[in-house]
Amino acid sequence: MATPAALTIAGSDSSAGAGIQADLKTFAALGVYGASVITAVTAQNTTGLSGIHVVPAMFITAQLDAVFGDIEIGAVKIGMVAERAAIEAIATALKRWAPKFVVLDPVMVATSGDRLLAADAVDALRMELIPRATILTPNLGEAAALLDASLANGESAIEAQGRRLLALGCRAVLIKGGHGQGSESIDYLIDERGSLALAAPRIATQNTHGTGCSLSSAIAAGLAKGEDLVTSVRNAKTFISGAIAAADRFSVGRGRGPVHQFHRFE
Question: H or E stretch including 93?
């Protein structure tokens, strides 16, 4: 029996707090072998982003074919895609290799506030990748940006935006509430059957770098291990809550430090 394996398609973070590095740490922490396809190389640290070097689409395709042609991939996580050509290359490869599960984290803005997705690529993301996603995992701001809408305020508005995102072709949407207000951080899992609210205590820390990357890769890890979607989302929520709660055990950098993917092993 093959070792459970997941693939992350995302950008590299030179400070290793987010992106490919956070995804691979998460896969390892959850007992899944991680493969990677790098879409962009960033120069960044805990204080911000200073540069992006985009990997050519042809080489993204070469990486994808190398991985899929050799390793049995149980689930794919897609993060930073940077530009339209990368999106088209990924969509073509997904069509060719037809992985069973695709977790799409529409990374548009970094934790620092820096933009990570070219404006002309948003339509391509909507048209090419969202319809291929098993689950889409936007935060409140990303959900609004994908819909050209204002920020959802309250459960009914969040669920309404989730329904509109479902109409773009994905099978499920997890709208993350970490950027919201209140004593609880509530994520909403929305699919054709209904809506499920997943709450956890809101944790007071500035060390949240890589939160969204780690959550989406934790969902992919669960799917790769054979969990159903609801179970993988629940387990991922528990995992990331623990990683955030343990983040202050680190003292890394001068800005927003990373979450602690290996908190269970201390």
Answer: helix 84-97
